[in-house]
Design brief:
Blueprint lengths: L1 H18 L4 H18 L4 H8 L8 H21 L1 H21 L6 H20 L2 H12 L5 H25 L1 H23 L2 H26 L4 H29 L4 H27 L1
């Protein structure tokens, strides 16, 4: 994964270089395309992952698995309709843990380390929020009808940063592997801060979400399912994920054609991503636990 990290750094700064040549509208379009391809794809094989780590020797039917999965997705969407503020809060918290988990890959399985992963991921999100407060406030208001004060974002960054630092010092003294990885991850945080500061909200989020989360996740999933990552195994991954990915695109397309002239489309788009994120985070948590 170290070689991929080198590629991700180069690709990230290439993305920032492109930022100077393409308009904000073009950045939004390309950003959404990246999210709709690699972003959705990285969560499109959850059913196959579930079948793979199922300890029950009796094979679960595809229909039954799909039913359970859609139930969770539907519950997430229902929450955004009934109590959007709670659904959005859960989405941010769960996404924060998921991002931190991906970065650190379960270096340790203790609850304390899980808390560290959680604060690390939330810190990344607050980094993104702090550089685009006005846009984030607008999205939150469109989803929840609640106006969040600017100081909330500053406080969130400070609190998560302090917790991350305190727990980081603890594990730095305790774990040799953590000590080696910490300096690299601290450098990545600097890279993320530069990306978020220079780019627009969607473009910055797309660069991080695709290059630093989705693609590494796909690589890990392919290795988990097939033993190693290569073109053949990646093609097989895409083939098995295609149906779910295609259905997701149809759902987003329907939202676009219904609300393309309304500001709330961005809010609905992220709400849709949140609904399909809830089961994905649980699946990846179990996969990493199995590993």
């Amino acid at each position: 994964m170290f070689k991929y990290s080198n590629f991700a750094i180069v690709a990230s700064f290439f993305g920032l270089w492109l930022d100077s040549f393409i308009s904000n509208k073009a950045q939004v379009i390309v950003g959404f395309i990246l999210i709709l391809t690699f972003g959705i794809l990285h969560g499109a094989n959850d059913l196959l992952l579930i079948k793979n780590f199922n300890s029950n020797k009796k094979e679960l039917s595809f229909i039954k698995l799909l039913g359970y999965y859609l139930l969770v997705v539907g519950f997430g969407a229902f929450m955004f309709w009934i109590v959007p503020w709670l659904a959005l809060l859960l989405f941010i918290l769960i996404s924060g843990y998921h991002f931190g988990e991906q970065q650190w890959q379960n270096l340790e399985k203790s609850i304390t380390f899980k808390i560290f992963e959680f604060t690390y991921g939330l810190f990344i999100l607050f980094l993104l929020f702090i550089f685009h407060i006005t846009e984030v406030q607008e999205v939150i208001k469109n989803i929840t009808s609640i106006s969040i004060p600017e100081r909330f974002f500053s406080l969130g960054l400070i609190v998560t940063g302090l917790f991350m630092l305190i727990l980081g010092i603890h594990f730095f003294r305790k774990m040799k592997l953590f000590k080696k990885k910490w300096f690299v991850e601290a450098f990545y945080l600097l890279v993320f801060a530069i990306i978020f500061r220079v780019s627009s909200l969607i473009w910055g989020f797309a660069i991080y979400f695709i290059l630093w989360h989705s693609i590494p996740s796909i690589i890990n999933q392919v290795i988990y399912l097939n033993g190693k990552f290569n073109v053949k195994n990646f093609s097989l991954y895409v083939k098995t994920a295609f149906l779910y990915w295609f259905v997701s695109l149809i759902g987003i397309a329907v939202l676009y054609f219904l609300f393309k002239d309304i500001k709330i489309f961005n809010a609905l788009f992220f709400s849709f991503l949140a609904a399909i994120t809830f089961p994905h985070v649980l699946v990846i948590f179990i996969v990493l636990k199995k590993k």
